[in-house]
Amino acid sequence: MKRQKLMLDSAMGGLVESIARLAEKGELRPTAIPELSLFRRTEPSEPITGMYEPSVCLIAQGAKRVQLGNDTYIYDASHYLFAGLHLPVVAQVIEASHEKPYLGLKLTFDYRDISQLMADSLLPPPRTQKTDRGMATGELTVTLVNAFQRLVDLLDDEQDIPILAPVIQREIYYRLLVGDQGARLRQLAAMGTQSQQVARVITWLKANFSKPLRVDELAEMANMGTSTFHHHFRSMTALSPLQYQKHLRLQEARRLMLSESIDAASAAFQVGYESPTQFSREYSRLFGAPPMRDITNLRQMVTLENE
């Protein structure tokens, strides 16, 4: 056990050096590998409401707390975070400093690639699954960290990315499929499972959140009874379908006001609200301030970070 810890620390040391160098000039760095983003932060953050997409998140240095409903996930240089669905969360960097900045990465994935890997390979049995949630933490292994290191290394030789990045990403998927969150990942990727059917409905909701929601129609889409669908949806997302739709609407309204400079009432109608008063009340409950005050605060934060 001690030897494994030393090997993991050594592997993580290389990743710390790579991310620190590549993400030196900004908090977030999209990369030449479309699915891969790098993160750097020199101080803890305030809690930030946002949407996690299907991805695996790894921290080379520092720590982060993620709140999904009433569940809290903390991950660091020993644990990765697996998000199997588009999930509304409150995230906060809790360990970061100028001397030891928070350094992390995120790799998004497409379930079609994982399903193809499952179809092409005779995978070993997964480890026991402990939860139905679409989010979980898992223990980092040396083999998984080394695979991420090789992926990050490609950013120094971008001409190799088109050929080698898909190969390394396939290895990362394999490591996840046989790891301690493998059962959850397999259920989400396998056609016909209840988890995959709920995931398909969530994809539809993301594209149609401004439309009126009828849970019985969503259940029919998932080929489930209404109560069964409601149970599985809440088990996976920690939210009811109506709560989930509300988060999608409010997140999009916030984006519209921040990025496109439209007023709160217009944003409310655009995302499906009929009452600006209800929109303002629910927005304040989620983000902690009325719409325009929240947007003003966000713009001031961006200005301070860029100075």
Automatic annotation (TrEMBL):
Keyword Repeat belongs to the record: no
PROSITE patterns, per the entry: HTH_ARAC_FAMILY_2 (PS01124)
Annotated ranges, domain HTH araC/xylS-type: 199-297
Annotated keywords: Transcription, Transcription regulation
One Pfam family recorded for the sequence: HTH_18
Molecular-function annotations in GO: DNA-binding transcription factor activity; sequence-specific DNA binding
PANTHER family cross-referenced by the UniProt entry: ARAC-FAMILY TRANSCRIPTIONAL REGULATOR (PTHR43436), TRANSCRIPTIONAL REGULATORY PROTEIN (PTHR43436:SF1)
Protein name per its UniProtKB record: AraC family transcriptional regulator
